[in-house]
Specification:
The protein is mostly helical. It has helices at 12-23, 41-46, 49-62, 83-127; strands spanning 2-6, 32-36. It starts with a strand and ends with a helix.
């Protein structure tokens, strides 16, 4: 079973013909299914997972995929996070790490100075 996706306006039709003409003769029981308005493999599988499971299980059990679960959907090209958001997260993380390291250095410096003062205070009564 070969699942292809096609987005209107993409040059995918020529690749479907190549797959049909050149690849499918080598697949003895192979069939090609074209899904409209789906992206790459992740869209085919996870955008409508129940339909994918139904298609693959029916293909392996009956030899014909049940594609009735797949419905044409509008493809949304809006990213989950934009580059400015990613830049803010990266810069914020970097500033946070720098502040953490600076705080640790100052804390260590403060503790070392306190330890030296205690040692000096212990030595002063012995000198007097």
């Amino acid at each position: 079973m070969k699942l292809n996706s096609h987005i209107i306006g993409s040059p995918g039709a020529q690749f479907f013909a190549v797959a049909r003409d050149e690849l499918m003769p080598y697949l003895k029981n192979g069939k090609q299914y074209i899904l409209s308005e789906y992206g790459h493999g992740g869209d085919i599988i996870y955008r409508n997972y129940d339909a994918y499971v139904k298609a693959t299980t029916s293909y392996y059990s009956k030899g014909e995929a049940d594609m009735s679960g797949y419905k044409s959907q509008v493809v949304d090209f809006t990213p989950q996070r934009s580059y400015p958001q990613l830049a803010k997260i990266a810069i914020g993380s970097l500033v946070g790490v720098i502040l953490l390291i600076t705080g640790i250095v100052f804390l260590a410096r403060h503790l070392i100075r306190q330890r030296r003062k205690k040692k000096l205070l212990k030595l002063i009564p012995a000198v007097l």
